[in-house]
Amino acid sequence: xxxEHKIAIAQINPTVGDLVGNGVKIIQAIHEAKAQGAEIxxxxxxxxxGYPAHDLLLHNDFIQDTVHVNEQIALNTPDIYAIxxxxxxxxxxxxxxxxxxxxxxxxxxxVDRRAKILLPTYDxxxxxxxxxxxxAATPVDIEGVKYxxxxxxxxxxxxxxxxxxxxLVDKGAEAIINISASPxxxxxxxxxxxxxxxHARQQHVPFVYCNMVGGQDELIFDGGSMVVDExxxxxxxxxxxxxxxxxxxxxxxxxxxxxAEEEVFQALTLGxxxxxxxxxxxxxxxxxxxxxxxxxxxxxxxxxxxxENVKGLALPSEYSSEGSITDAQKLAENLGIDFxxxxxxxxxxxxxxxxxxxxxxxxxxxxxxxxxxxxxxMVLMAYSNKHGYTLLATGDKSEAMLxxxxxxxxxxxxxxxxxxxxxxxxxxxxxWYNGVRGEVIPEATLTKPPSPELKPGQVAPFxxxxxxxxxxxxxxxxxxxxxxxxxxxxxxxxxxxxKFRAAEFKRWQNPxxxxxKQTSFGKGRIYPIVNGYVPSALFVEEKVTV
Length: 546
Hints:
Helix content is 36%, strand content 18%. The longest helix has 22 residues, at 366-387. It is built from 16 helices and 20 strands. It has helices at 19-35, 60-74, 164-170, 188-203, 260-279, 292-305, 322-335, 345-355, 366-387, 397-402, 423-437, 443-447, 464-475, 480-485, 490-502, 504-507; strands at 7-11, 40-42, 81-93, 96-106, 109-115, 140-142, 145-151, 175-180, 207-211, 213-216, 219-222, 226-228, 234-237, 244-247, 284-287, 310-314, 338-341, 390-393, 415-416, 512-513. The radius of gyration is 26 Å and the shape is elongated. Helix 5 crosses helix 6 and helix 13 (464-475) crosses helix 15. With 546 residues, the protein is an alpha/beta fold. Mean pLDDT is 94; it is low at 540-546. The chain folds into 2 domains: 7-254, Carbon-nitrogen hydrolase (Nitrilase/N-carbamoyl-D-aminoacid amidohydrolase, 4-Layer Sandwich), CATH 3.60.110; 265-462 and 506-533, Rossmann fold (3-Layer(aba) Sandwich). The strands form 4 sheets. A 6-stranded mixed sheet has the order 5-4-3-2-1-14. Strands 6-7-8-9-12-13 form a 6-stranded mixed sheet, with helices on one face.
């Protein structure tokens, strides 16, 4: 069963709250689709408002302004049907008065609409907080062809009693059109394709999927819109991580799947670029230690913002090795970014002198180590304030999981670029980058043992290749007994769990982290800081007695 109309997909990059700007972008996409010969153009979920708009959706002014923009967009649909994601007011139910809708526009009017039925409330999604769910799953008739129009979660129905795709087909839908704002995680495109393939084969209908593209706070939308025929065979796909308006020209093809490291680099670059661009920011400053985390953050920043908009500061103390300074300088030269060395020894000595009475007879310990990290942050924030640069946090997920980071020190920044990558993953992406671009990141950065260099001879106290996957299991809620079955000893699990839980208060104060994993630190993970629970699996020999 072939698609009866000439359909274009417009995966656009809206900005949350910029109703007028988004409206203009949508109208331009409609005009471009029409110029390509489209009879129908499909745009993403909540293309008008941007996604997720969160508590903006609680403001009546925002709702009414959105309604006005919906009407203005409809005026720009002569001789073309546009399926546009937005919101609309509805009768108050359980304290909510809006629906997440797909509006069908044609010849100056909104001629039909369908509301999202399955409202996700897990991970980063909080849609039951805002929306009244749709009820009936009925096709839309467009010039005699019945299209089953659904919104994002409506196709992710494995965990729901209702099967929206089947309901639509049972009521006569000849093709499914899904408009989405589906956040990225590694290999998410393959997951979406597999789901679409199954729906198409089971229901014997073609499936058109339009996804949003762009960054919004911690979330990254990767686009990658696609079309499968009634046998689940891929017949069209749009690029990932970029805007595109494309008329569907069916041709059997393979799914475009880059290696994981390339995909992650593209995602983080887009996320950072949009965080700055949509916020009206331009320039970034970061500390360059000569280590892997700051190096990878720096190359992503240069890619996203342009080398002329990135400033690296080396902030050596008396414990910094000469190699770390030269590695940082070499990276800056290779990237062509501005670079400066600002020693902190004088500041550190002055602070120690000020505190000497309080520290009397106390040995050197983590206090002096953290003092260096916080002095570095003081310099970076001063530079940020004085020169108008926004500070980037450079830590990785292994450090965040284990608490191996200094609160109000190296944790600080406007946004954490790579904090959803473990240390070993950061090395993998950096090695991929060098393999593509040449030796931009110095070889020494990739081969020397990681060290904060806060005391003589210091190296990181972890085997990251072993502890990172174990800690990632904890983040992903893998039962401790299952972790033990994967080859980890009870003592190391217990120690890792202790560190992981003790660091919760730090993670609550993290800057936002660009999300590239299914489970990340951020809006989708809410754990208490005050928490007395100790898993019984850590104490398998103990019994509770009264």
